[in-house]
Amino acid sequence: MIAIIGAGKMGEALLAGMLAKGHAPGDVLVTEPRVEHAGELRRRYGVEVVPAQDAAKRADTLLLALKPQDMLALLDEIGPHVGTDRLVISVAAGLTTAVMESHLPAGVPVVRAMPNTPALMGQGMTAVAGGAHTGAAHLDRAEQLLGTVGEVIRVGEQHMDTVTAISGSGPAYFYFIAETMIEAGVAMGMPRATAQKLVGQTITGAAAMLAESGEHPVVLREAVTSPGGTTAAALRELERHGVRTAFTDAIEAARDRSRELSGS
Ligand SMILES: NC(=O)C1=CN([C@@H]2O[C@H](COP(=O)(O)OP(=O)(O)OC[C@H]3O[C@@H](n4cnc5c(N)ncnc54)[C@H](OP(=O)(O)O)[C@@H]3O)[C@@H](O)[C@H]2O)C=CC1
Ligand SMILES: O=C(O)[C@@H]1CCC=N1
């Protein structure tokens, strides 16, 4: 039995993705404090919504998807019901396994995971890192569970804040670019629906090229950039405005914010 505690944006994406990939609703418990949202989850997914302490007593795997700021109070609440035979998987940004372990009984295995919202479509990217009490079987279990909603890689925990900044937050960067490109088309007089179609399929096609060609992005970009042409003119403007530096700074800011959240 799996319990998803915290069914907000990420928790619900994992829930929906897991159910779509064959997990039975009867094998998943959900904890959600807001009564209306709890009702929606029951109706939409056919899962049982229970208080956190009940979830902790009944499930062998606890998938925690609360905000980092709410997580430690939750661990203090459920800790007395969590034995060393359970597996705790947290997707919270920043919170280290050491901090979480210190709010649970000694020896409870904790995996820190960082998924992203495309998990909803079975296209997630998740990195997992083990804590002081996790063995290979625990990481296998976490990988198998999160692998139902996309790809999983294992990293050392020292890389988790960078993972959070790149693939955890990453979908938002691409949506930001998509939004900007659509607005540029609309500003030039194109109907919004046409601009949205052009941008959506361009992102899908570019992603497929990147995934399937195995080429470095520079090589793919060069193939688009005809000598003396339009792409070269556009790229010159992106460089002039420091977009490369802006992205690097943005990703560093996300990494630093993840580190700050460790103290939540
Ligand atoms: N969004 C994303 O793309 C990603 C998020 N994450 C991580 O996932 C976590 C959740 O983020 P996100 O989904 O964006 O945030 P949300 O605010 O959408 O979700 C948090 C959920 O936790 C619920 N909650 C709060 N307190 C409790 C409690 N005591 N017991 C059970 N549930 C509770 C909230 O309920 P209510 O709204 O009713 O208060 C809400 O549904 C964060 O730690 C974040 O770092 C990780 C990777 C990607
Ligand atoms: O914005 C956040 O803090 C979370 C973590 C990664 C993506 N969303």
Automatic annotation (TrEMBL):
Residue span, Pyrroline-5-carboxylate reductase catalytic N-terminal domain: 2-94
Record carries keyword Glycoprotein: no
First and last residue of the signal peptide: none
Main localization (coarse): cytoplasm
GO molecular-function terms, A-Z: pyrroline-5-carboxylate reductase activity
Keyword Oxidoreductase recorded: yes
Key words, A-Z: Amino-acid biosynthesis, Cytoplasm, NADP, Oxidoreductase, Proline biosynthesis
Reactions mediated catalytically: L-proline + NADP(+) = (S)-1-pyrroline-5-carboxylate + NADPH + 2 H(+); L-proline + NAD(+) = (S)-1-pyrroline-5-carboxylate + NADH + 2 H(+)
Limits of the Pyrroline-5-carboxylate reductase dimerisation domain: 157-261
Pathway assigned in UniProt: Amino-acid biosynthesis; L-proline biosynthesis; L-proline from L-glutamate 5-semialdehyde: step 1/1
One Gene Ontology CC term in the entry: cytoplasm
Subcellular location: Cytoplasm
Coiled-coil residue windows: none
Stored Gene3D superfamilies: NAD(P)-binding Rossmann-like Domain (3.40.50.720), ProC C-terminal domain-like (1.10.3730.10)
Any single Pfam family the record assigns to this protein: F420_oxidored
Documented EC number(s): 1.5.1.2
SUPFAM superfamilies noted in UniProt: 6-phosphogluconate dehydrogenase C-terminal domain-like, NAD(P)-binding Rossmann-fold domains
One biological process term in Gene Ontology: L-proline biosynthetic process
Record-stated family: Belongs to the pyrroline-5-carboxylate reductase family.
NCBIfam families, A to Z: proC (TIGR00112)
Known function: Catalyzes the reduction of 1-pyrroline-5-carboxylate (PCA) to L-proline.
Family annotation (PANTHER family): PYRROLINE-5-CARBOXYLATE REDUCTASE, PYRROLINE-5-CARBOXYLATE REDUCTASE 3
HAMAP family to which the protein is assigned, alphabetical: P5C_reductase
Name by which UniProt lists this protein: Pyrroline-5-carboxylate reductase
Source species: Nocardiopsis aegyptia
Source taxonomy: Bacteria, Bacillati, Actinomycetota, Actinomycetes, Streptosporangiales
